Amino acid sequence: MGSRKKTISAIIGLVIFLTILHLLFVTYDHPLVWFELHLGSPERRHDQTTNEAKNWSQVQQIQMARRERLRQGCAAVGYKQRFVIQNLDRSTLKKFSRIHVIPELKAIYCPIPKVASTSWRRLLLRATKNDASEPVVHSKRVFPKLSSFPLQDARRILKTYTTFFFVRNPYSRVLSAYKNKLLSEDIKVREELERWYKQHDPQEVKNMNSSDHFTFKQFVKHYIESDAKNPHWEDMMELCYPCEIDYDFIGHLETLKDDSDYLIDLLNIPDGVIFPNEVKPQTNSSQGDTLQMFYSQLANGQYRDLSFSQGLARDALLFGYDTPESIKRV
Q1: What's the per-residue H, E or C state across the chain?
Q2: In tens digits, what is the pLDDT along the chain, a chain of 330 residues?
Q3: Which side of the chain, N or C, has fewer Cβ within a 10 Å radius?
Q4: What is the pTM of this model?
């Protein structure tokens, strides 16, 4: 009798299982899809717009190439011994005053102006359940800075946290800074250039009035000759020190969505916190026709001086960027 009951129970259980399996096939085409959707899959998390599996192996291969290029570039510009974790001292740590530490995610992020830094700060604030309103996103106190930690803690953080930053083609970044800060009449930046010109080339601004824009040629002259650059166009190397910090991930603005989606998985950022499908560019400074419109204003000599300037040339070398096709000259 007991054996018969066990047999009946087993048959009922099998029928229920097959019924559920049939429903999964009907609803999801394949039962494994249900498990991926509900239990999570590194290839599917955070892609709410297409539900297409991401090929993270391709992103990882690209990262290996970017990091190797950076290693070779650092050696080429004179860094014989990279990375400062073991030999980190207080004077070196002070340089890292722009680098954000996000303890909740065990992450270090170095924001570079004009490279989706606002979008990434907003995402990190949401991921850590902080206020992500405009005033907070643009505050200098969004996250603690690496330079504010005791030396031993800073060493531990550099050794154990995931480190990342994003870069872009230096030619388009220079133009983006000009359009965003000088064509849009950022008063502080305008006054900064006025002071520099009055000290170094007063004749250039002698007849300018408050309604006149600085031209792109004038801006490039300041960029080439000024010893102290505004962070919005400061060399990317000088902002994030990639020859001294061993970054785990180097994102590119040109592959922003894929790089960001991968990082969101890597940092275990909660579901529902996603990077926008499209980050609307404020200045369209990566577009070929926009680049050509402005760079064509430069005489050959100034264009050459810009291309061979230490900051732009070094950033291009370290991060693998060529001169955009639309502005190349023979």
Answers
A1: CHHHHHHHHHHHHHHHHHHHHHHHHHHHCCHHHHHHHHHCCCCCCCCCCCCCCCCHHHHHHHHHHHHHHHHHHHHHCCCCCCCCCCCCCHHHHHCCCCCEEEHHHCEEEECCCCCCHHHHHHHHHHHCCCCCCHHHHCCCCCCCEHHHCCHHHHHHHHHHCEEEEEECCHHHHHHHHHHHHHHCCCHHHHHHHHHHHHHHCHHHHCCCCCCCCCCHHHHHHHHHHCCCCCCCCCCHHHHHCCCCCCCCEEEEHHHHHHHHHHHHHHCCCCCCCCCCCCCCCCCCCCCHHHHHHHHCCCCHHHHHHHHCCHHHHHHHHHHCCCCCHHHCCC
A2: 555 554 555 555 544 444 444 443 333 333 333 323 333 333 433 344 443 446 688 999 999 999 999 999 999 998 876 677 778 999 999 999 999 999 999 999 999 999 999 899 989 988 988 766 766 676 667 899 999 999 999 999 999 999 999 999 999 999 999 999 999 878 999 999 999 999 999 999 888 887 789 999 999 999 999 998 999 999 999 999 999 999 999 999 999 999 999 999 999 998 888 877 655 555 667 788 999 999 999 999 999 999 999 999 999 999 999 999 999 987
A3: C
A4: 0.80
Q: Which two tokens stand for residue 118?
A: 């606002």
Structure tokens at 158: 């550099």
